[in-house]
């Protein structure tokens, strides 16, 4: 995707999803989307406590990870849902975050974010094909990914297994 962007004068930076959107827009309209500048984030320097307030534009640093591991135990993980909760709750205390974490951590994600297309594909493959192997799922994924268009699982993807 970066090679395509470079060849057509499009910005090459950003996530896979952003590049995909930029390319799709260019192919559809012929116009070049300019990536938006993200505001510079400043890492927190003071010590975190349960009474500290969650900052605007929070940066998930090792300091944050160490704090949550201390409060929640070694099994703590910065799951996407928890990161989203922190980002959408500036001004609340870290105590509130610690209390919310167990509820957030046990929930299964309803939708896998776009940058995790592989995970989504494999999950959907096994929902439709409980008797198939991971090896077969990967073969189908690699075939699908090489094709133009959507990377969503479709039953027709199994045809690549028949030609092996």
From TrEMBL:
SAP domain span: 1-27
Lineage, highest ranks first: Bacteria, Bacillati, Bacillota, Bacilli, Lactobacillales
Name of protein: DUF6434 domain-containing protein
Highest taxon of the lineage: Bacteria
Organism: Enterococcus raffinosus
């Amino acid at each position: 995707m970066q090679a395509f962007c470079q060849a057509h004068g499009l910005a090459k930076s950003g996530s896979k999803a952003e590049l995909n959107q930029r390319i799709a827009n260019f192919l559809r309209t012929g116009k070049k989307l300019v990536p938006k500048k993200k505001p510079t984030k400043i890492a927190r320097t003071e010590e975190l406590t349960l009474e500290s307030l969650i900052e605007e534009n929070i940066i998930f640093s090792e300091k944050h990870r160490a704090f949550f591991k201390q409060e929640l135990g070694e099994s703590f993980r910065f799951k996407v849902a928890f990161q989203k909760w922190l980002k959408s709750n500036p001004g609340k205390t870290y105590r509130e975050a610690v209390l919310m974490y167990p509820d957030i951590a046990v929930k299964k994600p309803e939708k896998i974010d776009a940058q995790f297309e592989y995970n989504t594909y494999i999950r959907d493959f096994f929902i439709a094909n409980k008797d198939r192997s991971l090896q077969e799922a990967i073969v189908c994924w690699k075939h699908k990914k090489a094709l133009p268009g959507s990377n969503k699982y479709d039953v027709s993807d199994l045809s690549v297994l028949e030609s092996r």
